[in-house]
Automatic annotation (TrEMBL):
InterPro entries the record matches: Epimerase_deHydtase, Lipid_A_modif_metabolic_enz, NAD(P)-bd_dom_sf
Domain NAD-dependent epimerase/dehydratase: 12-247
Protein name: Reductase VcaE
Pfam families cross-referenced by the UniProt entry: Epimerase
Signal peptide: none
Amino acid sequence: MGQEPDVERPRVTVLGASGFVGSAVTAALARRDIRLRLVARRPAAGPAGAVAKIETCTADLTAPGAVAAAVEGADAVINLVLHESGWRGAGDPAGEGTNVGVLRDLVVALRHGGRPAPVVVFAGSTSQIGVPPRVPIDGTETDHPVTAYDRQKQAGEELLRAETRSGALSGITLRLPTVFGPGPTPAAQDRGVVAAMTRRALAGQPLTLWGNGSVQRDLLYVDDAGAAFAAALDRPETLAGRHWLLGSGRGIDLRELFGTIAEVVAERTGRPKVPVVSVPAPAGATVTDAHSLVADSSAFRSVTGWCPRVSLREALGRTVAALADPAGARRG
């Protein structure tokens, strides 16, 4: 009899739970009265004081049968599995097996799971748009993905949409902008441009800016991204079957961003601000690197009530503090 209330609690499975965004999603979901299964290649510990009943599973999700075992009995699945390739993220064709293959195995497993249509929340990218036809984008534009990574995300999103139309599941794609912030462990750190430039500034090195720095980016603090995935689970009947943009809705010039990073680091260290210098774009730069990308997330906000809570300046301060003293940040 004592086990019956636990069985009634929904089971949410997070794939990629030990990663940068996955850790933030885990923290948001751990505050809920649910059964939470954390699946990752590396051990993924639940946060202290969790309300959720947490189960951890270490697995290579590209191995045959691994996905089916990981999502068995799930009422909802959040797929954050990502093939990473360098500091700019997953951009090479070898990521297809992870970025698309894991999702393909997931929908097959849920299709034959013998349960009511589960909810699947998939992490896409605002960069799937390719070269934006306007700024900001609002999610109604036609996509023209440029990089291998964006084409892989697009393929996964289309697969999820087709399965939703068939009634096999309720699929939701949340397209992420540039997500940044401190990670809870050394293995779950941000590898994006904000972290890269913060580390340079802490080392006393100039911050290198491609061109004149007029290109704008939309930045989202990692905890706010985690809260968005949790919010999506509350409105599957409205959100299912399409993609939704996340973002602050405010673009910031990269020159202004780099200057702010240098300023916050100087405040932290007591040293002079490092300079921001312009350099030519490298050979590996894509056409999208030269275009601003800002996301209007008002559609998602109106459905879920979600909105970013942490200001850019505060978020940069937290990021700088964590990278300046990683051990202290983890203790905190």
